[in-house]
Amino acid sequence: MDKFVIKGGRKLTGEVIISGAKNAAVAILPAVILSDEVCTIENVPSISDVNICIQILTEMGASVTKIDKDTYRIDPTTIRNCCVPYEYARKMRASYYFLGALLGKFKKARVSMPGGCPLGDRPIDQHLKAFSALGAEYTLTQGMIDLTADKLKGSQIFFDVVTVGATMNAMLAAVKAEGLTVIENAAKEPHIVDLANFLNSMGADIMGAGTDVIKIRGVEHLHGADYAVIPDQIEAGTFMTAVAATKGDVMIKNVIPKHLESITKKLEKIGVNIEQFDDSIRVWVDGPLVKANVKTAPHPGFPTDMQSQIATLLTLAEGTSIVTENIWEQRFRYVDELRRMGADITVNGKVALIEGTGKLMGAPVKACDLRAGAALIIAGLAASGVTEIEDIYHIERGYDCMEGKLRALGADIEKVSVPDKQSVKHEEVKKAI
Ligand code: EPZ
Description:
433 residues, alpha/beta, UDP-n-acetylglucosamine1-carboxyvinyl-transferase, Chain, 2 domains, 24 strands, 4-stranded mixed sheet
């Protein structure tokens, strides 16, 4: 197992290039299944969730060639297997996008219940509601979801909650269904629009992505396409927050400023300076950080995937801040770890009360999920002394070479290999014999 060792207290300065968006890439790669020809996908982040998607596609029989660091050429015409086994599906949430893509292409799918960050209850009832509305039947047996449909017919789908995953899956299943599908109360995240743009580049007919009503006219055939994934809104927001926490000055490149609006506005309220350019933003701090109240919400609201990072920043601000998590039941598990670093945070249900102490102290901590891990990195960068972060595999699921990018900005961060408990015990037993 690896860990990050961070010596805190150094300002981040210079420039960083943001990678492709994880939550777009993990939907676009399964969507290639729907094509009847070869697709080339660019600006794909080098993260473990993408590696799992590539493994699944390969296991299914697709021919995948890695053209360069962030470009894949995928031929889905050789796919023969419509099953995603537990060993892969359990490693990430996005494995459920193979349900929509396989159903849309082959009218059948068999995918294990997905894994992903432990954020409390993560039902899939809205996904199943969408598939049923389009004419599919499903069974849930021994942790496997089986979908079959004689044919898929366009339908009206009204989501009871705004859900990114189910909106994506409904689009994937509907693009080749007969007739018109109307999705209402749809999610509007940038990665929803990116998936729709990719599908349309293959010849799909999707209108309204990015609004709460998406209309899809089914088509017979989807041809190949060359497509570049959008920059990662959350990676950019994470770096913006890290610069603020270290009172640095960084140009963050390869971003879409429009996608960052809610994060930019919140950081400016906290006292962070931000200057926007066409595809980059400059972030710097030259004064005190002040308290703020944050409420997470579906896009264009403040993203839940930025909640732990902004909360960490607020521990360094003057005054009492309130953070309300409206999307997930359990997204404050990182607070115990921040308390070990001297943070003064009280959590009551979906509300965290943060007494800004202005400082944090290095300590050994553990990442409990992807964004919690990112928050602990930010805390370690700002803290005095040394912070060691274990279980960094969570972080590597969604951030492309985070430690390399931070080191290039002046951070003192190293990835250190730690023999796992089993091998240490084994070595001790061997020595004892
Ligand atoms: C996606 O998860 C993201 N993951 C999450 O990012 C993100 O936190 C979330 O959207 C919200 O933006 C990926 O894109 C791979 P939802 P998803 O369906 O699709 C409820 C990260 O850090 N719901 O939008 O699973 C659900 O319980 C990860 O990158 C139902 O009730 O989230 C939640 O309260 C963590 N029934 C709300 O909707 C359903 O069938 C939003 O969930 C589906 C969801």
